[in-house]
Amino acid sequence: MEKLSHLLEHWLEHSREHTMKYEEWADKIADEAPEVSELLKSAAEKFREGEAILENALRKVRHV
Q1: Is the whole model's pTM more than 0.85, yes or no?
Q2: Where exactly are the structural domains of the chain?
Q3: Cβ-based neighbours of 26, under 8 Å, separated by 6 or more
């Protein structure tokens, strides 16, 4: 479980970095391409949902 815990931590960190970039770009292009901006925001929201699930998995792995 130690290996999985390490992997989950890595995946979460990596995902959070990407999610932040999606949000940054959504803001940058909001005026020029509002539809694309909204799609990026929607994607970021879904990634945050996935991150919450991975965080839950990590908590459970740590208590096994």
Answers
A1: yes
A2: 2-62
A3: 37, 38, 40, 41, 44
Which two tokens mark 51?
């991150």
Q: Quick one: how many helices (H) and strands (E) in the chain?
A: 2, 0
Using DSSP, state whether 33 is helix, strand or coil.
Answer: coil
Q: Which two tokens stand for residue 40?
A: 């990026």
* Residue 37 token pair: 């901006």
Q: Read off the amino acid at residue 18.
A: H
CB neighbour list of residue 16: distance below 8 Å, 6 or more residues apart: 51
Q: What is the pLDDT of residues 9-64, one digit of tens each?
A: 999 999 999 999 999 999 999 999 999 999 999 999 999 999 999 999 999 999 98
